[in-house]
Amino acid sequence: MLKEILRIIGREGYISRPKLAAELNISKVLVDDGISQLLRMGYILEDKNGEGCSSFCSSCSRAKACSKEVVKTFKISEKGQRLLQASS
Amino acid sequence: MNSGTIALVGNPNSGKTTLFNALTGSNQYVGNWPGVTVEKKEGKFEFEGKKYHVIDLPGTYSLGAYSEDEVIASDYILTGNPDIIINVVDAGNIERNLYLTTQLLEIGKKVVLALNMIDEADKRKIEFDIPGLEQKLGIPVVPTIASKEIGIKELIKRTVEAMNNGVVTKNPLRYNDTIEHHIDHLTKALEKVNLPYPARWTALKLLEGDTGIFQKLKDYQYFEALKDIEDFYKYHSQENFELEIIDSRYAFAHWVTEGTVHRPEEEVITLTDKIDKIITSRYLGVPIFALIMLLVFQLTFKIGGDILGEYLASIIESLGGLAETFLAYINAPGWLIAFIIDGIINGVGAVIEFIPIIVVLYLLLGFLEDSGYMARAAYVWDELMRRLGLQGKAFISMIIGFGCNVPGIMSTRTMDNQKDKMITTLIIPFMSCGAKLPIYSVFIAAFFPNHGGLLLFLLYALGIIIGLIMAKIYSKALFPGKSSYFIMELPSYRMPTLKNILRNMWDNVYGFIERAGTIIFAVITLLWVVAVLPVSAAPYSEFSILGRIGTFIAPLFKPAGFGTWQEAVALFAGIPAKEAVIGTLGMLYAGEYLEGGNFLVNAIQQHFTPLTALSYMVMTLLYTPCAAVLGTVKKETNSRKWTIFVALVNFAIGWLVAVIIFQIGSLLGFS
Asked: At how many degrees (to 10) do helices B519-532 and B545-553 cross?
């Protein structure tokens, strides 16, 4: 399941949990688990998009708008890339 | 006398504590696990005249070293020697819960599975083949509803039976040959020492890279075993044992539920998939985004400008009238009346009048964000951005930049590719921020009242287009190389919550209001002073200090069609804060009060034509960003050179595009 999730993410270029659940015929909760495991093991890395200016401008009137995460993004790590190449 | 100890193990929210209460009733006592503040609950129950001790372990999804709860549960199961484990499983989420079950079976302890909350699963029409589950898992499975104390007696009976029947739990999970080979190798090394844990389990955890097990081997000074393990890792450090092992457990859990858990046929293609097929389509994605944004701007202008804006404008004008009457009544000096009416009410007030537009725009953008659409928009733009030498994440920074360029630039911190970071930083100032909205709004009200939404949309689009063109130029000329790759999460669509939308709006509007009361107020005050001095010159005239400065720089803007000193001064007043452009015009045109409607709109109609209004709006869209943005560019690039580059190049681009628009418009006969 984990390798399949990683393979689909690498192929599609985005993470859609409902789509992963449908394609792998598993529940969305399991997809969440799988993504958490891949993150924990370092096959994918989550970007800290909401932390852009939290340390810089806490007194700024726009700090709250600034620290918000509009879109969650990830990267496939080198470890993940190696696994994808090995299994392709 | 205790006839046996039973440990309750389960995922969080599996109903484990409810089951513990159902088993033990009031025979409970609460303490702490040694060395930690995690609650330890123990209790007793009696069955057929014998007493049994029950321990409720912390809820955990797996047994390992990744959280305090996991460590406590693992340690107790491995070293606390319970006679049997009741594994509490949420029936509705059985596939996920079976991951922990698999680990319990691998340890080799006796296990009874309590398939709990079976009523909830029943409501969702999930059916279970209990004998099938028992056969595949090799342990008793008892359906329970702990909250209603249903199945508890049967659970106790089967648990006590299993505890005393002498049947050894079999580990039903076999890994692939490579993993099994390594497990055997490590197990042999571990069997040489007297471990307090099962050797195969320890070998598995070592292969998984469980740091807790390594530490324990060190603590117990099992140096011989450690040496063998270290030798092993010299040759196998790059292999994905952990992933293979975890994957095999999920595969086992999936195999167990196949044919034993029947869920109603769910629609494989969800509504989200159906919508995404159209919205993220290669050819329709960008046009759909453009249409949605056009609709957003139309609504912004209709609701925020035509309805709410005019209402607020009339309130501010009434306040101005009242203030003037009051100041005259108390015999306030002329300069104070002029400062309050011309400087504050007409200057700062001109900015505040446009708050409704900002409120509506951010309510709508918040709706799009919270619904999950903005992630799709960024995904759709990703391919286009890549072709222009940027990664799609730059588009996310651009979206953030629509609120304020400062956080847009700050968001580039998460880009680890220097090329992407630099190019995005340089193009963000072309994105139209909220502070520029009052400028567009007043010019649109003056000349294009029936096409406000469309014009607003075109201005935002022009900012994006110029940004993309410059990205391509910067990518080719200044930062050659490849962009990094990233993956975006497309969340399920959902109905946005009012709370989230309102919070998003307030986070943006608050900054605007605060700036109106601080930096804009300060800029207007300073400009008002130099606009009424020297005393010998007529206030707000070209002979004032401000008038003389403006007259000196005004010819620069003649080719763009707006060459008066007030317009030139207002542009430079926009460098401390963009809202000050409109505040300055409001103050400088205050002497030309015209009856009826918004005075600033009327004044602008006297000083501009539709074509010069257009070129002025484009200039304000693209020219030198505000001081806060320049400061952020300096901080993020750590370079004075790039800060000056942004200030000058953006000014030149703004000027050039404004000139092109005016000159071509004039040639085509527009005025």
From this structure: 100
Q: Do B96 and A56 touch (CB under 8 A)?
A: no
pLDDT for B426 equals 95
CATH T-level topology, domain A2-87: Arc Repressor Mutant, subunit A (1.10.10)
CATH of domain B177-262: 1.10.287.1770
DSSP element (H, E) containing B41: strand B39-47
Give the separation between CA B365 and CA B309, rounded to whole angstroms: 19
12-31 in chain A: CB under 8 A from chain B = 13-19, 22, 25-27, 29-30
Beta bridge partners of B51: B2, B46
* Paired strand residues for B9: B87
Testing the interface with A: which of B98, B250, B269 to mutate, by most A Cβ within 10 A?
B250
Rounded CA-CA distance B399/B276 in Å is: 20
Residue B647's pLDDT is 95
Out of A37, A56, A65, the one facing B508 most closely (by C-beta) is A65
pLDDT of A52 higher than 60: no
Question: Which stretches in chain B have pLDDT values below 70?
Answer: 26-27, 31-38, 220-225, 233-239, 265-270, 305, 309, 347, 350, 482-485, 590-598
Which three-class secondary structure string do you get for A11-41? HHCEECHHHHHHHHCCCHHHHHHHHHHHHHH
State residue A62's pLDDT score: 60
Closest-approach residue (CA) in chain A for B371: A70
Delimit the domains of chain A by residue range. 2-87
Query: Is the pLDDT reported for residue A63 higher than 70?
Result: no
Q: How far is A74 from chain B (nearest CA, A)?
A: 5
Cβ-defined contact of A30 to B404 (cutoff 8 Å): no
Look up residue B133 and give its two tokens.
Answer: 């589950």
Report yes or no: B493 at the A interface, CB cutoff 8 Å.
no
CATH topology of domain B2-164: Rossmann fold (3.40.50)
pLDDT digits (tens, 9 = 90+) for A15-29: 877 778 888 888 777
The total of other beta-carbon atoms located within 10 Å of residue B172's CB is 15
B349 CA to chain A: closest CA distance, Å?
Answer: 20
Of the candidates B251, B269, B407, the beta carbon closest to that of A65 is on B407
- Distance from A12 to chain B by nearest Cα, in Å? 9
Characterize the bridge pairing of strands B2-10 and B50-56.
parallel
Determine the Cα–Cα distance for residues B321 and B344; give it in Å rounded to an integer: 13
- Per CATH, B2-164 and B177-262 having the same topology is answered no
Residue B33 has a CB neighbour count (10 Å cut-off) of 18
Strand partners, B489: A15
- In this predicted structure, what is the pLDDT of residue A68? 64
Return d(Cα B567, Cα B39) in angstroms, integer. Answer: 70
- Residue B484 with chain A: CB contacts under 8 Å: 75
Q: Which two structure tokens, joined as six digits, stand for B157?
A: 């009976």
> Which residues of chain A does B510 touch, with a Cβ-Cβ cutoff of 8 Å?
61, 64
Residues B410, B405: Cα–Cα separation, whole Å? 9
Contact across the interface for B487 and A41, Cβ inside 8 Å: no
